[in-house]
Structure formats: C-alpha cells, structure tokens
Amino acid sequence: MPELPEVETTCRGLATVLEGRRLSKVEVRRPNMRIPFPKGLAQTLTGRTIDRVSRKAKYICLHLDDGHVALAHLGMSGRMAITRPTTAPGKHDHVVFDTDDDVRVLFNDPRRFGLLTLTTEDGLATHKLLARMGPDPLGDDFTPTVLSAALSGKGTSIKAALLDQRLVAGLGNIYVCEALFRSGISPRRKAGSVAGKRAARLVPVIKEVLTEAIAAGGSTLRDYAQPSGELGYFKFSWKVYGQEGESCSCDPSGKDGIVVKRIVQTGRSTFFCSRCQR
Ligand SMILES: [Zn+2]
Hints:
4-stranded antiparallel sheet; 12 strands
C-alpha cells in the first residue's frame, strides 16, 4: 500500500509534468473506483491548466486554474504512471490525463480502492474526506504540544493511537513501528503516558523517518512503481519493520539473544525490541 512517502514521491513526480500544463483531454474509463466519479469530471478537467500539485495526508490535490481541485487517493494498489500519448491505456488504467505537451498520465489501480473526485479551493478544508483528518505529520502544525494534547488521557496503545487518522493523518504501519523504535517507546505503552516528554521525543523522530523515506524515494513491501512508470527498487533499511526474529541493532553480534519481536495490535503487525523500547 502506498504510504505517505510514496504519495509525496508521486506528487513530486506529477508536479514536474503537470504544473503549468493544460489538460488537452481527460478520459474516464469506468463509472467508479472506490466511489463513483463525479458527473462531468472529464469535461470539468479538460482544457484547464494545472497550477499546482499538492499533498494533503495521503491525498493528491491537482489545483486547477478555475478554482477546482481534483482530489485523488491511491488506495491499496493505485499509482500514477507518466507515459506518452502513444501508450494505450490498459485494463486497470481508469483515468487518462493528456497534456498539451505530449505527456499522458495513467491512473492505474487494479484493486480500485483508490478514488478521484472534485472539489474547490474553498471546499478543500471542509471536504468530507478531509475534514476529520488530524494534522499532516510533516506539517508545521504537528508539534509535541499538539500530539500531547491528542494523546492525553487516552487508554489505547500508542501504536493504535498513531494509526488513528484523526490524531495524525497519513502515518502508516511501517512508519509508526520505525518511529516508536527510534524514539525508544514501547508500542504497548498507553497513549496517555506518551503525552509530555515522550511526545516531545517522538514528533521529531516521526518527521525524520518520513523525510528519510521520501529522500530514499518511498518504500513499500513490494517494489514500488515510480510515477515515471519505471519500477523503483527502494530499499530502505528498516530497523524493526519486517525484521521478526532478526538480531536487534542493540545486539549486533546476537550474543545477548535480543531479537525483534512481532505482535498483533488492532489487527496489524507491530515489530519492536523489548530492550530498546520501554
Ligand atoms: Zn534492541
């Protein structure tokens, strides 16, 4: 599943070919993805110039010159492939964007948990998909004070709390596991007990993990398709994620027998070290 760094990488790739370009033709090739495409979507987009591409949590926003915003989500298996108009769309290419300067962007999504809808600049903040979302973890409004206030009094685990999109938006399982490891916080700790000093430690670490992953070009369990249409082989060295049974970095020679453990919390795998994380 594309996580925040992959979405950011996709946005940056799209910005290079779409910003300042006019959409000469948009083709919508089926009635829906996760939700129906809005009526007149292709007509609304065709002929417009894309002023700016931005990201809100895991949503991609295409800001048009007439005040409309096309809002896309990659779901579980979506990607934006940047190609040429000579590339015929395939079975899973649901939306085709052609620009004036001979670029074709294909919104490909085999499982169709992704979506593409329309809103306006004025409606963006209150849009029903975005309105209840917490701050973006890379945004200036995601601070230790804000996180502390959100965690205060919470009885759920810190792991579950950080995956709650209302608390912080766009943080996925991989990045939560890694950030908790790097900040030495046990995933089983009650969220309320992380408010204060631990939150002050955690916030910069979350930003650091995401920034490093973006610099590495994003990462997922599988090879991730870059927006250029080429397959990227992003290998990011996870310290705990997917490392069950491996020696923890606190015990590189393995002489203490300290290995990364896996537990299941709220239906998701958590990887951690019980010596490093308290
Ligand atoms: Zn360890």
